Amino acid sequence: MSEATSPTITIALEIDDPALADRIASLLGGVAGLALAAPGQAADAAIVSRAGPDHAEPGDIELTPRELDVLALMAEGASNKAIARQLGISVHTAKFHVGSILDKLDATGRTDAVAHAARRGVIHL
């Protein structure tokens, strides 16, 4: 039996900050099943950032040192289980920290949290 392959999802990056766009492109470039759209090419989804550099200051977000550890692992694509293993905490505690980070960054998901944190200078990719 042959294995069915998932269709490729094409993502357009519409990001005003060239450095951030390059970092996100390099992160997404290695993800199986994703392709980055060339300028003007149709895409299935888009990542859009129009915020200027003065949009938010790093100091307006107060993450604990442990949340910063968890956020760094999230930026590397680690699952809750991998975060727990790496930090020597339970999966439940890892989930709690991820939820707290999402709330503090007003993010809709893990990728959104990493993007918000990078844009605000909380982490550097």
Q: How many strands appear in the DSSP assignment?
A: 3
Determine the mean pLDDT.
Answer: 84
- Taken in chain order, the helices and strands follow as EHEEHHHH
- CATH topology of the largest domain, anyone? Arc Repressor Mutant, subunit A
Q: Distance between the terminal alpha carbons, to the nearest Å? A: 41 Å
Would you write up a description of this structure?
The chain has 125 residues and is of the alpha/beta class. It folds into 2 domains: 45 residues; 70 residues, Arc Repressor Mutant, subunit A (Orthogonal Bundle). Helices cover 45% and strands 12% of the residues. The radius of gyration is 16 Å and the shape is globular. About 5% of the residues have low confidence.
Task: List the main descriptive attributes of the protein structure presented here.
125 residues; 5 helices; alpha/beta; 3 strands; Arc Repressor Mutant, subunit A; 2 domains; globular; 3-stranded parallel sheet
